[in-house]
Design goal:
Layout (H helix, E strand, L loop, with lengths): L8 H4 L11 H13 L6 E3 L9 E6 L2 E22 L6 E15 L5 E7 H14 L5
């Protein structure tokens, strides 16, 4: 189900809670909403659809990926950039890393560890900030 985009800053600043198998429906709604906004958005966190759960979805070079409870294990090669967000107006400066190693759970709640580089790494970092209530 496509959900409305949350734009209330006080809500977006709330840290997210651990996702469980009971949250698979939220993940599907997040994915549906991301796909509906494919022209202007490459990633979303659950709080962007009004849910404070640790779930992100993103476009990884044409393939949609959902991560539950992602955790940054390693980050290399910092750089400064500017990013926009569907939940916010305008662009903001931020610091990102060109390469990241992330631990997460897939849709079967199996733990996975994967390294991401480039733009996909940047997307994941942006969405993980959302999970912590960080507004760039």
């Amino acid at each position: 189900m496509i959900r409305p985009i949350m734009r209330t800053i006080d809500f977006l600043k709330k840290p997210s809670k651990t996702a469980t198998k009971d949250d698979l429906g939220i993940a599907q709604d997040l994915l549906d909403t991301l796909k509906a906004h494919t022209e202007e958005c490459v990633g979303m966190a659950a709080n962007m659809i009004g849910e404070t759960k640790r779930i992100i979805a993103f476009n990884d070079e044409g393939k949609y990926v959902v991560m539950f409870n992602p955790r940054l294990l390693k980050a290399d090669d910092a750089f400064k950039t500017e990013e926009g967000c569907l939940s916010l107006v305008g662009v903001r400066p931020c610091k990102r890393f060109k390469s990241i190693k992330v631990q997460f759970e897939n849709e079967q709640f199996q733990t996975r560890i994967k390294t991401y580089k480039g733009f996909t790494a940047q997307i994941i970092q942006h969405e993980m900030d959302h999970l912590e209530g960080v507004i760039i």
